[in-house]
Design brief:
By secondary structure, this protein is an alpha/beta fold. The chain contains 13 helices and 13 strands.
């Protein structure tokens, strides 16, 4: 399931650490067709696309506010508490990053001012197909709210779960039951029902990413072109195999094109972690997706932690977890990673 590589040379990093390939050219052509249909057909095209891809047509597209609030009764209290706690943590993290306006006079008679203004109308794409991402709601709606955006628009595929509806209902946003590339097109272009936005945030599959990149080329602001989820774990002999396995599976279950890599200076730890991964996999509701992802997973046994950090900096993972005896020391040697988790 997880391929083991027993020591590799620097010249082999590129060979072993290749990202999974996608049929991007084919996707881009189909996405352009979807965009053209929305551009020329508006809501009517959206209805046809929803029926084509989702098998249902939301009527209306916008989810009523009362429906978002009603979802609360179908959500477990423990989960609601966890969502609120996560929201408070995220809010505190972003509150600390709010930029401050400044006025300086570099020389007499010269006055320079830096003034930060919120984006007027933002669009949030919230994945909700195979895995409704409650975290995406929190990590996009909270910064937009703190920034003071005048209007927040969110699109999520039809048939959103009560948990997702509840989380969306925590914010003053308009929610539309539209998914995929057609949702990006609706927010970027505007239709009879969906307002045109000034910037789009949020992750999605290859179709969503291709649509965002298309509109970025036409001048629309986007956050970034998010690719498939990926995670690397650097673990030494002090790591807990059960924790390592859980970390690997947490990203593997995102999608069949997700990639997870374990790097360790202990072959015993690698073998124990793989056994734990197989054991925990059987308990996952999304084991089919995780199993497909693990087909291109990798476990690399290295000579020492210095080589492990060298491999990590070469690969530049989206998420990096340091399950080592002194994670702080190891973290100081990391120069390329999206986010780093210590311990």
């Amino acid at each position: 399931m997880i391929k083991i590589v027993d020591h590799i040379k620097a010249s082999e990093y590129a060979l072993y650490l290749r990202r999974p390939e996608s049929q991007q050219a084919d996707i881009e052509n189909k996405v352009r067709e979807i965009i053209e249909r929305v551009e020329h057909g508006g809501d009517e095209a959206l209805r046809a696309l929803c029926l084509e891809f989702d098998g249902k047509v939301p009527e209306p597209f916008e989810i009523p506010r009362v429906m978002l609030q009603r979802a609360s009764s179908d959500v477990d209290d423990h989960l609601k508490s966890a969502i609120r706690q996560a929201g408070e943590n995220i809010r505190a993290f972003h509150q600390a990053q709010l930029p401050a306006n400044a006025v300086i006079e570099p020389m007499p008679g010269i006055r320079c001012e830096i003034r930060y203004m919120p984006v007027e109308r933002v669009g949030l794409y919230i994945p909700g197909g195979t895995a409704p991402l409650l975290s995406t709601v929190l990590m996009t709606a909270i910064p937009a709210t703190l920034a003071g955006c005048s209007e927040i628009i969110a699109c999520t595929p039809p048939g959103a779960s009560p948990e997702l509806l509840y989380t969306l209902g925590l914010f003053n946003i308009r929610v539309f039951a539209i998914g995929g590339a057609q949702a990006i097109a609706a927010m970027a272009l505007g239709t009879e029902s969906v307002p045109r936005v000034d910037k789009i945030f949020g992750p999605g599959n290859a179709w969503v990413t291709a649509a965002k990149m298309h509109f970025a080329g036409r001048g629309l602001a986007i956050d970034m072109p998010a690719g498939p989820s990926e995670l690397m774990v650097i673990a030494d002999r002090t790591a807990k195999p059960s924790y390592v396995a859980a970390d690997l599976l947490s990203q593997a279950e995102h999608g069949p094109d997700s990639q997870v890599v374990l790097v360790s200076d202990s072959m015993e730890l690698i073998q124990q972690s793989i056994r734990e991964t197989e054991k925990q996999l059987m308990l996952l509701p999304r084991k089919k997706t995780a199993r497909a992802s693990l087909q291109h997973a990798l476990a690399i046994c290295v000579n020492n932690l210095e080589q492990a950090t060298e491999i990590s900096n070469f690969y530049a993972p989206e998420h990096l977890i340091l399950s080592v005896q002194d994670p702080g020391e190891t973290a100081r040697k990391i120069t390329s990673a999206g986010s780093v988790f210590l311990g």
